[in-house]
Amino acid sequence: MAETYAYSIGIIGSGVMGEALLATILKAGVVNKRVVISDKRLERTTELAVKYGCDVGLPEEISLKAENIFLVVKPQDLDALMKLIGSKVSTNQRLVSFIAGKKTSHIQSFLLNSVPVLRVMPNTPVSVGVGALAISKGNSASEGDIKAIEEFLKASGKTICVEEKLQDAVTATSGSGPAYFFRFVEAMISAAEDLGLTTSDARTLVIQTISGAAEMLKQEGASPKVLRENVTSPNGTTFAALEVFEREDLVGVVKRAMLAARNRSQELS
After folding, report:
1. How do beta strands 117-121 and 131-137 pair?
2. Which of 53, 99, 102, 252 is the most buried (most CB within 10 A)?
3. Tens of pLDDT along 75-84?
4. Edge-to-edge strands, sheet with 157-161
5. Residue 229 belongs to what domain range?
6. Domain membership flag for residue 60
């Protein structure tokens, strides 16, 4: 794409994820004055402009001045936004949606031109640089468009590319995934307190345990099954705990939960 735009990146929607993307884009090397942001809340964009040194603009201005337009609004706000900017975006730009459940074809239906549209499912750990993101391309987008967006997101964590039909599964896996682990940590802390530990000690032990286990999983060739078996002595303490998980059908609970998340993502589309 020709370098003819005032801004490299325009972010429409400056909530928690919008700010996380802003921070990671700057870490990737984009100059702050080449980034423009927009939000319905003027005080929010003012806050972020001061914090990060970027510019502030209206969505319709961003649609004309930014080479890459990141859509980070709520799903229910997408249609109104696309009615506002759809006719203004050209084939020399990219539209990148970070909106759960919304298909690239839906976004394309508002466009007058064959604009490259991509869809990204991020998760909240993007805000600390260890996110998991899945990218899909719409009909008018190319592999080159994917590589360009991957470059912008390189400081956000790990990215994969998937067919768009799998984005609902991604949502149920990594998009909603952090909440599953946060809920499990809550439950472990509560159980530790019931066993007599202070809240502070329970929190320290549980979070460090989760962090350590995650690091072990990152090691080359690591298998969660083998790592679990290495901790589990026959008829020992871990065995007793895992027996409860088996009786309560932990695998079934997780599968049903992720299926519910997948189905809700499909409903949102």
Report:
1. antiparallel
2. 99
3. 999 999 999 9
4. 55-56, 35-38, 7-12, 66-71, 94-97, 117-121, 131-137, 157-161
5. 177-268
6. yes
Q: How far apart are the first and last CA of the chain?
A: 30
CA distance 133 to 157: 7
How far is residue 34 from each of residues 21, 46, 216, 227, measured CA to CA in Å?
Answer: 14, 16, 39, 46
Query: Are 102 and 218 in a shared domain?
Result: no
The pLDDT tens digits of the residues spanning 98-132 come to 998 899 999 999 999 899 999 999 999 999 999 99
Q: Tokens at residue 261, please?
A: 């998340």
Residue in the structure block whose two tokens are 């589309």? 269
CA-based R_g, the chain, Å: 21
| Long-range contacts (CB closer than 8 Å, 24 or more residues apart) made by 191-196 | none
Residue 46 half-sphere exposure, CB side, CA atoms within 13 Å?
A: 3
9 beta partners: 35, 68
Residue with tokens 């027996």: 243
Q: Within this chain, do residues 150 and 200 fall inside the same structural domain, yes or no? A: no
What's the token pair of residue 155?
């400081």
Q: Are residues 61 and 110 in the same domain?
A: yes
153 pLDDT more than 60: yes
| Alpha-carbon span 125 to 14, nearest angstrom | 16
